[in-house]
Design a protein that fits this description.
Two copies of one chain form a homodimer. Chain A is an alpha/beta fold. Chain A folds into two domains: 214 residues, P-loop containing nucleotide triphosphate hydrolases (Rossmann fold, 3-Layer(aba) Sandwich); 58 residues, Orthogonal Bundle (Helix Hairpins). Helices cover 53% and strands 10% of the residues of chain A. Chain A is built from 16 helices and seven strands. Chain A has a seven-stranded parallel sheet with strand order 3-2-4-1-5-6-7, with helices on both faces. In chain A, strand 5, helix 11 and strand 6 form a beta-alpha-beta unit. The N and C termini of chain A lie far apart (53 Å). Chains A and B meet through helix 5, helix 9, helix 10, helix 11 and helix 14 of A and helix 5, helix 9, helix 10, helix 11 and helix 14 of B.
């Protein structure tokens, strides 16, 4: 169904018209909505580009239930040999910069070129701020109804490592489902940028004028990671300010050390709302990918990212297994009470549990 | 030496004049600067309020060397029974908001009241941005030379859990050394706020006018954690704008759910540069601490934070022990190569290492 001819066809529940009118497709959707479904059925669904199967498999990845985790691991293993040569693009920017509008404009441009676009998010703060990015699909209403696009909010979790791992695994499933352009959104505020930068081929920073401390502090770290800095909302009265900011950022970037990719980050203006500048941005991205595939940075970078992925999986698994061991579950409850009653220091209580686990 | 009468005495290397002119003090400093020193000597030094011993012990906490970690653990254990009833204050705000100036003004006010102030920092991004907060003591030149103040930059590390754990352990050592007011600085951008909020009794958010998205997005989550929002740089022409922002924040905060502490967060303006408003802020903090000690929130909150600390120590230890096991060290190297050569998927390589570790 990802091969629908008209990517702009609209229908309810993100299903293309062909799916609704085609009895086979309806049967398939109903099939994948059943309560119990085997992992091999889900894998087959994914490899047949069925997005309901994809959604259900992602739900397994995001679950903390031991049976679900086992199923998820088996699905990922089966999908790994079938991943395609997608491109992975990270997009960041502080709240208010227009990330959703930009991603929607870019996504629609990409599907109009025949691309299949998956939009994921990494937002470990969503547990706290109770407002996950991409949580509300209406923020990208047009793209959400595009038959060649798939949008999935950030997995929840206060632990960045866990959120990042789940997102990496979701990328694999999206690629096995035939999505060739993976966009990963994150909020422009720190650690999650670093995590997203580690899982993409291209990292794009969105900016706006008048955001205060554009060029200093933590932002500098994020700007150093960026392959492109795009000033959004460069329309109407704001156009001139945007150009001033563009020049300032250009100057800052020229002072940064050369990138391993040999790519010189580009700075440009756009108006995602008016869909201005989007085509040019995609053209530049295309030439970026040509460059880094030619000089083998693409390949090298993916190899390094795979190492990161290995470490993330190890760390996440170690903690998971510890906290699910029966002896630990029992003693943890005892030590928690002892710590709360000031009978044991948290430090000693922790080291004692580790000693028990090692036995 | 923390009991020097004049806290504004200045001298080189953060040592009070009495230390320089007193032969015993000089001998003691020289003693703690020796290359090899036993843990019991360091513990004695700490309990005798010697800050050179404190510095060296913190260096052990921050080390990744197995012998140092063992020493550090033993020092913490010995110091735990001697921690005093300090207050722990977290301070955050985006870069440019004037955190250093504010902390210096507050710190000097506190030492003038006879308090002993330790300033620590949590900044896991410092590894990436290569500019740790508090890294440069000259940013708080006056406070750094105050005999009753101790300033320590953020421990380095890209892993927030590890940085947070080291900071908690450092708090214990500072308290055992007699510091009664612990200030923990962090950058106002996300996960590290949550970590710091979990280790302090009072959480203060610094703001400035014109910072753009003051009231939206991720900032909302941080604002919800705040016990006070202080608008800094409220001087000269900016005074009126600061008052407008104060009213807007006040309104936002009034819509938040009631805090467990029953404390209604206060919003006020100050000019840290001109030392205006600092006395009033400290008065409000004093009444905060009276309130939460009376209604037992202080105690309850500390208990919950101790649980966090226990979990942090467990998680950090688990990873540390895994990566230091000889069988893992060997196989990790093999699997890293296999992943880089695309002979093994990162996912399978990770699960294989976990299997080996479990044996």
């Amino acid at each position: 169904m990802l091969k629908a001819n008209n990517p702009n066809k609209k229908s309810s529940q993100n299903i293309s018209l062909s799916e609704i009118t085609n009895p086979n497709a309806i049967a398939q959707i109903q099939h994948f909505r059943k309560k119990e479904i085997s992992t091999s059925e889900l894998v087959n669904g994914i490899l047949n580009q069925n997005r309901t199967a994809l959604s259900r498999a992602i739900t397994l990845i995001e679950s903390t239930h031991p049976t679900h985790i086992e199923k998820a691991n088996s699905i990922i293993k089966s999908c790994l040999p079938h991943v395609n040569q997608s491109v992975r693009i990270g997009i960041t920017g502080i709240p208010g910069v227009g990330k959703s509008t930009f991603i929607e404009a870019l996504g629609i441009h990409l599907t109009s070129l025949g691309k299949k676009v998956a939009v994921l998010a990494v937002d470990p703060s969503s547990a706290l701020s109770s407002g996950s990015i991409l949580g509300d699909k209406t923020r990208m209403e047009e793209l959400a109804q595009d038959a060649n696009a798939f949008i999935r909010p950030s997995p929840s979790g206060s632990n960045l490592g866990g959120v990042a791992r789940k997102t990496r695994e979701t990328i694999i499933l999206c690629e096995a489902t035939g999505f060739d352009t993976i966009i990963i959104e994150t909020v422009g505020v720190g650690q999650s940028e670093i995590a997203v930068h580690r899982m993409v081929d291209f990292f794009l920073l969105l900016q706006i004028t008048g955001a205060g401390d554009d060029l200093q502090g933590i932002k500098r770290g994020i700007m150093e990671m960026a392959d492109a800095v795009i000033i959004n909302k460069a329309d109407g009265e704001n156009s001139q300010n945007a150009q001033v900011l563009q020049a300032a950022i250009q100057k800052t970037i020229s002072l940064f050390p050369k990138k391993d990719s040999e790519w010189v980050p580009f700075v440009s203006c756009c108006s995602a709302l008016h869909k201005e500048g989007i085509t040019e941005i995609w053209q530049t991205l295309t030439s970026y990918f040509e460059t880094i595939k030619k000089n083998h940075f693409f390949e090298e970078n993916r190899k390094n990212q795979n190492l990161d992925w290995m470490y993330e999986t190890i760390n996440d698994e170690l903690l998971h297994q510890f906290y699910n061991q029966p002896a630990i579950i029992t003693q943890l409850e005892i030590n928690k009470k002892a710590v709360q009653n000031n009978e044991k220091s948290p430090f000693e209580a922790a080291l004692e549990l580790i000693r028990i686990y090692k036995k």
